[in-house]
Structure formats: C-alpha cells, structure tokens
Amino acid sequence: MHYKKFTKIAMGLLLTVGVSSSLMAGSFIDKQQKELESARAVWTQKNIPAGMQSGDLRSATERDSGADSVSMQLKNVNFDVVENIGFYIEQLNVTLEPKTAGDPVVFDDVESFTINVHSGTVVLSPQVITDLFNNHILDYWPRPLDDLTITTKDDYLEVAGGLKLWSWFPGIYLPADLGGKIVLNADNKLVYDIDDVRVLGIPLYGLLSAIFIDLDLLLSIDREGAELVDSVLVLDHTAVFPPPTLAGRLASASLDSDGLRLVFADNEAAEFKAPPVASDSYIWAQSGDPRLFDIVVNNGTVQVIAEDTSKPLRFNLYDYRKQVAAGTLKMAKNGDIIATIPSADGPDYQAGPSSATTGSSFSSTGSSEPAEGCLNRAGFNVCEEVKAVETVVAAPVAKKAEQVMPLSSAAKAEMKDMDAGTCFNRAGFVIACQ
C-alpha cells in the first residue's frame, strides 16, 4: 500500500519536472528565436553609403543582399595590386563592381570585377612608377627601354635607363635620360610630355625636333594602356595597371618629391558611416557581397586594420589570403567583421601633404569640349595649340627669352614654310635669334 502511494508521488514529481523542463526549453527557444530575429533585422539592413548605389536594389535573398557593388572606403593605406605595383591611398571612396550583375565580388578572380573610383587621392611613389614600367608596361621582348630608374620633383619626371632604337639597334642598351612633365589631356589620359632626351649624355631632343623627327619614329611602346604618340607617352590609367580594371575620371595630376599624385572627383557625395574600430589606417567595406576564401559575406561590413598600428596598413590584393590567414578575425553580433592582419612585404611608404600648386597640375573638370576634328592622336586640342604657336611667332621676343609653347604635329609641319632665319631652341621652340 505504501509502495503504491510512493510510486504515485514519484510519478507526479517526474511529470511536474518534465512539464517544467519543457516549458523552460520552450522559453529558451523562444528567446533565442526572438534574438535571432532581431539580429537578422540588423544583418539584412542596407548599409549602402549615400550616393554609392546607382541603380535600384535587387530583391534580397539569403545569398544576395541586392546591392550591385561593394562600397569601400580606404584611408592611409599602401594598396598593392601585385608585388609593389599599386598606390599609396590618402583616402579613397570606391565601389567594387562585378562584371556580371548579381555576382559577388570575388577577390580570388581579379579579372571578374572593376574598381570604380568615386573620389579621393592616391600617390604613386617614384619606386612604384619604376616597378610599373620595368615589371609591367615594358615586360615584353624586344623592349626599347630597360632597367629604368624614375625620380620626381618640382612637377618634373626624370627617367634614367638603357635604350635601344627601334627596340633592337644597337645590340646593347645605351645609357639614356628622359625628362618631362605629366599632364592630363582632353581624353582624361595621363601624358608624359617629354622635352629632354639624352643618349650617352648627348642632348638629342632639340636635334630631333629641328629635323622634324618624333620619338615614335625611333621607339615603340607595345602595351595596352601605353602608347608613344609623336614625342609624348600617353598612359590610360584605366588600362595601364594590372587587373582588376580601374575606372573613374581624374580631376588632376601633379608631380612632387613624393611621386605622382592623382586626384579623383567623379562623385564626392558618398557618406560612409564610421568603421567599428577607430583607426587612422584601414580598409572599410560597408555593403555588398564580397567573396573571400570561397565564402560570401552577405551584406558585408568588413574592416581590415594592421597589427602594427605605428605605420600604414600595407595590403596586397593578389596575396590577400596569406595576410588574412596570418591574422585574426572577430565577429560582432551586428554582423561586423574585423580582420586584423600583418602588413604585406614592402616599404613603409607614406606621402606627405600635397605641395602642388594650382599651376603645377592640369584639371579636366569643367573644361570646354574641343571642336570636332581638333583632337590629335595624343588627345591634345590641336586647334588651340596652333593658335598659341601663331601668337608666339607674331609676338616680339625679348633677348634670351624662350617662348615655351608646345607644338602640335600640324604646327611643326607649318614651321617648314617659315621664313629663312627663324630660330629655334634645342626643344624645337621659336626663340629670338642671337
């Protein structure tokens, strides 16, 4: 009898505990699901900076945030595309845009997306420009120029290296020096306007100009994005660098001791929120779907910072896996990912404040369109240049004062018909006869 009562009491207690446990488990599950729902609302919230989404958003899914690009801000970063070919970035707002709409931005396939620069400033150090020419632009055979060393100062770029005429004559490279300014032409391309050529220390540019021989008759540059036209080297910044493709219109270009400074100002309306970790050197992807290590970060908010905060982060796009694998990742409940990585190999370069004056760079913004037929192959307005030359020839010239006005091909042809006794300097410009 007592045994039966004890059994009933025990069963009652077990039933009570079981019901209580089930209720508690249910409350825990409900709590977890509510927290998950709240977190999901944060994860799926669109974080696209104002002014960076050009079209309508696609319908979002678990694998697609609906954004057509990854909006990214970079500040105080040495950004290598490959090896030492890249930029020092003061600050840049860009979108990484997949070439196939709806695809993620695949960091392991640099030919699958475009870096569209909206605004900001980058600097190519003299060493970067040297490596760009030696290891990329002139990386073919036979090459006309070899083992270049490039220096920049006072809005002037000097090149020292070996030269072979017509890429093969003579059989050895002759010591050569080139000099000139870099300007933007009407096609928004960089133009190295060469005004000094020396071979074995002998100045040749004036002689070549006097007998109407341009450098492109003696040298050949065979690389997409680089073309020698007359006696200027035209560089298309959207094609001359290794992949990924670069897009964005340049506002100005200038030279100083830090290197070549390029300013972009296509879209200055972008407004990024502050990255989760306060830093003066970072890469901050605020939206879109980047794919890294075959993992798609949906609606990604990813900040990359350096382990050593005493110097700018150095990031290598082609070798990013090595850096990320050697670093640490932290994930916040709101979905932010913080990647703290060692800097890539390379110099700890940091450009100083711009010393360029308004007169030392050419701005293409707001310029009037040239008349039809006025652009020559180098992208200069020939009509305006001819007018300038005519003005120089007609104006009285002070003693020993050179008229430094660039001549177009058409203007050079007209010089053949000038009166006997017209005097030119070694660069081919009209000067007062002494």
Overall description:
By secondary structure, this protein is of the alpha+beta class. The protein has three domains: 70-125 and 266-341, no CATH class; 126-257, no CATH class; 381-431, no CATH class. The protein has helices at 2-43, 126-137, 205-210, 320-325, 382-394, 409-415; strands at residues 70-82, 85-98, 105-106, 113-124, 145-153, 156-165, 169-184, 190-199, 202-203, 226-229, 232-235, 245-247, 250-256, 259-265, 282-285, 290-292, 295-296, 302-306, 313-316, 328-331, 337-341, 362-363, 423-424, 430-431. The strands form four sheets. Strands 1, 2, 4, 12, 13, 14, 15, 18, 19, 20, 21 and 22 form a twelve-stranded mixed β-sheet that branches. The radius of gyration is 31 Å and the shape is elongated. The N and C termini lie far apart (138 Å). The model is unreliable at 356-367 and 388-407 (pLDDT under 50).
- Overall, the morphology is elongated
The portion of residues forming beta strands comes to 25-35%
Helix content bin:
10-25%
**How many DSSP-defined strands?**
24
Radius of gyration: 31 Å
| Average residue pLDDT | 78
pLDDT under 50 segments (min length 5)? 356-367, 388-407
Please provide the ordered H/E string of secondary-structure elements: HEEEEHEEEEEHEEEEEEEEEEHEEEHHEE
Main sheet, how many strands, which sense, barrel?
12 strands, mixed
Count of discrete structural domains: 3
Question: With helices defined by DSSP (H or I, 4 residues minimum), what is the helix count?
Answer: 6
Structural class comes to alpha+beta
Report the span from N to C terminus.
138 Å
